[in-house]
Amino acid sequence: MSISTLTDKGQTTVPQEIRQALGVAPRQRLVWEVRKDGSAIVRPVPSVMELAGSLKSDVTFSSIGAETEAATAAWASESINPKQR
Known about the structure:
By secondary structure, the protein is of the alpha+beta class. The chain has a domain at 1-50: Pemi-like Protein 1, Chain: D, CATH 2.10.260. The chain has three helices and two strands. A hairpin with a 5-residue loop joins β1 and β2 (40-44).
C-alpha cells in the first residue's frame, strides 16, 4: 500500500510505484472518479498520440503533398481570376 499527503493547496505526490503501475509520465493528466462508497479511482488520460488510429473510417484521405498542391492550385486560380462579388 502506498501513502501520500495532501498539502494545504490540495496537491499530492503520486508515489513512484503507483506512477509506474499506471505508466504515467510527468505532466500527464489524470482523471479521478469518486464512488458512492467513498473510494476513488484514478486513471491516466490517454494522450492524443495514443488515440491516433483508434477510430476506423471508410473515408480515404489524400497525402499532405496532394492537399498542398490542390490548395496552391485553388489559391492561384482565385488570385488570377478573382470572382466578381
